[in-house]
Specification:
Helices cover 18% and strands 38% of the residues. The chain has 411 residues and is of the alpha+beta class. The chain crosses the membrane at residues 20-42.
């Protein structure tokens, strides 16, 4: 059974009228915003993009990037080169020719007793001077130690023989001499006294052999005047304390003797060593150039460093049990540090002054000393050959003093 309306057909509803009115209002509102508000936004640069009205004559579309600029003119695209050279690349290009490789050659005997030279190690060096037809290179003592011959290598892998002009164990410096005709660049010396912690630094050298010659690493100056113990005879006791610049610029095997330079391209240090432990990264050291220059000049002119000579074999009191201080050395309780003399070299300044084995030295020129390093630093940094030094010491518990005239260090 069907149902239907008695007034069928029904009256149609007016849906178009309901839609048309909101659309009309939206169009009018949009036109108002475009006509009145858009010019205001453009005038005060409130839009996130640039609006160009019309087309200027000769205008071109430009798309820029970090490495290049692409310009559009009609249908043609053209790559425009951009100079991306920096201060660092300019410095490296200028300084690198003055940093060379150093090859340590030592004689070896074969099975049939034939002697031939072989490479025992490689390092780096810095050309710091040309005088007439001779050029001079500074490197580390440990780079050329025990060498029978030394060769200098350049960036093009050419080699030339060099002569060892002089070498010094305590400062780890050596000077080499070669024919100046092979040299194109001499490095400019700076000052290590003026460096600041945190300033950038570059290390240039030949890490891991000559195949990586001219390698550059960048870092900062991490510390000034770091005191690093040195054990030359590998007996577990420090023989010297090197004062060095600390940097986090990578210094790897082969970098030794290379250049540490500042952002002006000036030499501020001679790369020397790093802390080689698996748990340590980014701790390298360089010899300050201000300390190196006097040593370099002596090595160049004299072949060795002349130092005051005392003539004792001595050890720090801390190297023996404290119970022996009173029992064997008969020291009073007020003595807390010093060095004891194991032996005296005949005809040495110490022998001439009457010092004896088992005397305990506690002060030099009125300054208390703690260990053997203090003795060497006072001798080598504060005294000169021929000067007098006042020594305060204990013998069998009795405090004594003597003045000694220092002679030159015997090699």
């Amino acid at each position: 059974m069907g149902y239907y309306d008695a007034n069928y057909p029904k009256k149609r509803s007016n849906k178009k009228g309901k839609i048309f009115l909101p659309v009309l209002i939206g169009v009018l509102l949009g036109a108002f915003l475009f006509a009145f508000l858009l010019p205001t936004f453009v005038k005060y640069d409130l839009l996130p993009y640039e609006v160009i009205v019309g087309e200027k004559e000769g205008s071109q579309d430009r798309i820029s990037s970090d490495s290049a600029i692409i310009e559009k003119s009609g249908e043609n695209l053209q790559n425009i080169e951009v100079d991306i050279s920096t201060t660092i690349t300019d410095i490296v290009a200028d300084v690198s020719p003055a940093v060379v490789g150093v090859v340590n050659l030592q004689s070896q005997s074969s099975l049939f007793e034939q002697t031939e030279s072989g490479e025992q190690g490689t390092g780096s060096g810095v050309i710091y001077k040309v005088d007439g037809d001779r050029a001079f290179v500074v490197t580390n003592h440990h780079v050329i130690q025990s060498a029978d011959e030394v060769e200098i290598t350049f960036a093009d892998e050419s080699r030339v023989n060099a002569e060892i002009r002089g070498s010094d164990l305590f400062t780890d410096l050596a000077v080499l001499e070669l024919d100046a005709s092979y040299v194109d660049k001499v490095i400019e010396l700076g000052s290590s006294e003026n460096v600041n912690v945190g300033e950038p630094a570059l290390a240039i050298g030949n890490p891991l052999g000559l195949h990586l010659s001219g390698s550059v690493t960048q870092g900062i100056i991490s510390g000034k005047r770091r005191a690093i113990p040195q054990d030359f005879d590998l007996d577990g006791r420090a023989d010297w304390q090197a004062e060095v610049i600390q940097t986090d610029a990578a210094i790897n095997p082969g970098n030794s003797g290379g250049a540490l330079i500042n952002m002006n391209g000036l030499l501020i240090g001679i790369n020397s060593m790093k802390i080689a432990q698996s748990s340590v990264e980014g701790i390298g050291f360089a010899i300050p150039i201000d300390d190196a220059i006097p040593i370099i000049e002596q090595l160049e002119q004299e072949g060795q460093v002349e130092r005051p000579y005392l003539g004792v074999e001595a050890y720090s009191l801390n190297d023996i049990a404290q119970a022996e201080w009173e029992r064997s050395l008969n020291l009073p309780a007020e003595v807390e540090a010093g060095i004891y003399i194991r032996s005296i070299e005949p005809r040495s300044p110490a022998d001439s002054a009457g010092l004896e084995a088992y005397d305990v030295i506690t002060a030099l020129d009125g300054q208390a000393i703690q260990d053997i390093i203090d003795l060497r630093k006072h001798l080598y940094q504060n005294k000169e050959v021929g000067s007098n030094m006042d020594i305060t010491f204990y013998r069998d518990g009795e405090k004594k003093s003597v003045s000694i005239e220092l002679s030159s260090l015997e090699y």
